[in-house]
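Input:
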Amino acid sequence: MIKITKNIIRQCAKNMMFDLTSEEVDTIFNEFDTVYAQVGFLSSIKGVDEVEPMTFPYKEHQHKLADDIPLKPLKRALALKNSNTAFGNQIKLPKVIGVNSDVDE
Amino acid sequence: MELESIIGIEIHVQLKTKTKMFSRAPSTFGEESNTQILPVDIALPGSLPVVNKEAVILAIKICSALNMEIAHTLYFDRKNYFYPDLPKGYQITQQFNPIGKNGKIELNLDSGEKLICTIDNAHLEEDTAKQLHLDNMSFINYNRAGIPLLEIVSNPDLHSGEEAMKYVETIREIVTYLNASDGKMEDGSLRCDINISLKEKGSKKMGTKCEIKNLNSIQNIKDAVDFEIERQKKIILSSNKVESETRRYDEKLKQTVLLRKKTSAVDYKYFREPNIVPIDLDDELIYDAIHTMNKLPSQYRVELSKLGLNNYEINELLREQDITIYYDELIKRGADYKILWNFLLGDIKAYLNKNESRIDSLKFSKNSLVTFVSLVKENKINSKQAKEILEEMLTSGKKPDVIISEKGIEQINSSSEIEKIVDVVINENENAINEYKNGKDHAFSYLVGQVMKLSKGKANPNIAKELLISKIGDYFKK
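Output:
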């Protein structure tokens, strides 16, 4: 298991485009002691590896579906602000498609 | 060695909703880049997906039309891949529990034979952003990211370009008749990927398959598949191995060309989407979706065939749903099926095409057209007069009887009146009569033409012909 460091926490926050204060980093970092302890406890249970992973702890189904009524979209300038490489009305990226790429276009 | 081609097709149908699959951003086509976006579409932290009800309803309609088993609980999964066309880092799809499974459709081949193609599943998912690749950079427009898609996956039941083409054509017909999608291949609202492999006939061992992408017309499907079958055949018969590749169809070269080699299978590490708890669909929602479906092309096909239209006529009519519905309604009002087909698919459609307008913009009423068809059927107007009247109806919207009285167009159906004209024509055209006697058929057409000319186009041509034959007989007896 990867040992979580304060730098990893800061980097994760940065990847999600927000900054954490030192106090917030400390709070999250300290919570990992509890997480490690719980994971360690669970790993010690016999046969736990053979149990299918669960996404939802309870059989909790819902009926809610969204009505097909449009909401006002984000203003383009605001949407493009989330990229630091906007060009004109588009988001600009280095070309990532290669001849041998398996990624679907 | 006798080879057999095995073809399976995946069709992505963009569903005709007002909003996206998991967000309520508008899904309007053709808007300015990056203006149809909400936080969910660009994966802003804290935003969560909610499933679009209308997309589910349209998917149920399509699944029902494809004779599929419909899931009563919806589950969604994540297809993980790192690529900028979906900023979440994954696509929400239905990998393990599709909304529809085990379907089948009947294909009408040109030979008149019917072929059943089975469908493995149909699953809901979200579309990706549109990318534009230039020399060393790519540009992304997120308007398309999140638009609802229904991916329909066939079983490998198809074996030729024609069968592949008919399959896609039939699916396109179904989704457009259901008003569930625009089905426009040229705009990308219906896209298909075709997997083709060849194997020795009778053998259970499958060959290496190639995938053809980016097909933008029904005709290209046939051409691309036929080319690809021949390409693989040549490779195998020259004792070489077909390589697993993604190819595209080059319209100018009329051949498939390499896009990329498939070196290894991509592991998308699918797992259940934890942000959408399973959704139990109300029975009422499923029932309503199925029972409010538009009439399907297959249903029209049976009815039109019973009326007496042939396969060609049926296919031509079914090309456009609004014209089919219009035709269907006029038949119910008593119009003759054949005469109506001729005028609707002939002069009226040509007029609509020329004026880039639709059938619901016609200036005359449906009852006017029924009256017009009756006038033709009862021989009250001849074909020349019919064209003149219809042209006036199309431009002015006037009723046919009004046009007839205004223009003084009326057919002469009185045998005695036509007989007088026929007598004049016979007396003045001795040469033509002799030519007709000597076996020159065109001479008879000439004589009919003379009768029509003298009557100013008003004589009933059938009566004129009968009288001419009888009078020419009398002429020679003399």
